[in-house]
Design goal:
By secondary structure, the protein is of the alpha/beta class. About 40% of the residues lie in helices and about 10% in strands. It has twelve helices and twelve strands. A seven-stranded mixed beta sheet has the order 3-2-1-4-8-6-9, sandwiched between helices. The chain has a three-stranded mixed beta sheet with strand order 5-10-7. Keywords: Membrane, Transmembrane, Transmembrane helix.
Length: about 375
Amino acid sequence: MNAPQLLLTRGPGDYHGGPLPAYRRPNIPEIRPTAISRRPSVAIVIPAYNEERIIGRCLESCIAQTSAPDEIIVVNNKSTDDTLAVVRRYQRHHRQLNIRLLEQNEHQGLIPTRNHGFDHACSDVIGRIDADTFIATDWVETIRRRFTDPTVDAATGPVFYHDMPLRRLAFWGDHRIRSYLRRHSTDQRFLLGANMAIRGSAWRAVRQLAHRDLEDQLHEDIDLALTLFKNDFEIAYEPAMIAGISGRRLESPVRDFYRYITRYTRTTKAHGVKSWTALLTMVILLLVYLTFRPVRFFYDVENNRFTLSKLRAKLGRTATTPPFGRRDAATAGHTAEQRVADSVGTGIWAGPIVLSKPTYLGSLP
């Protein structure tokens, strides 16, 4: 299959809170289902922990869909910032949409939070993204079309880094790698937690079989994919199911990133799978990290350009910023809420948004 063409359109709201630019895919053949006539309902589940600075842009991309989702479910996991305030403001400004805000306070971690959202979804298909994911405007429409095929139980698609340079090249490489692994892997299938969907009936069938991972040692998306695969559920790769994810994990220290990539082998080991694809994926992730980590310190993600000012600012913050957790939380919360108050629904963000460190360290893609 030819790689889908990634065409970015730029405008005043480009990557600043407006809808993710449209994508046109002339080389992707339309799937023509034969057995199901009713288009399935779709929910979008978004686990969130301390995401006040980015979740608004994620919600904007969910709201701007060509086919509106039946549910948008944000699951808050013990956030200590203004994540709740941001989501509630979107609820008030978009009453025509079913934006639900749930709280999962029993356990700190991605899997319990994801499960809570999946369990409360009422739609036929449950989409899952991260709070720093921006989905293409036809993401929900693509899922509806794909899941009219009754043989498909879950699906995932290609991604690009929306806050890194060379987005087209990264998208092309990601698509080629995922297509190759889908064709040649015989012992497992793949899902990407930041860009996936699962049929509600399939989730309920494997709900008690997937690992709870309260120790936070596994890749939750790979664990779910292996559980589905071992129980004869079909996972499809859909090239038109496109999402932009954040490259902020590349700013993690080397030790933390190594712990992140070795989650893959711990996950396959937990399922009794010895997979060459796990090792290949770890090598690819490590190469991406070593190559592009320095870029993060010279790239202005707000203005999409290289600059030394970000590096100077980072060095300045390192020298002057007090220890983590001692900044004025009330002032920070007011700033985040004011930004949303000034910009929600307009597609334009008031002031720069500085991406924070990875939410679930070791659990986000």
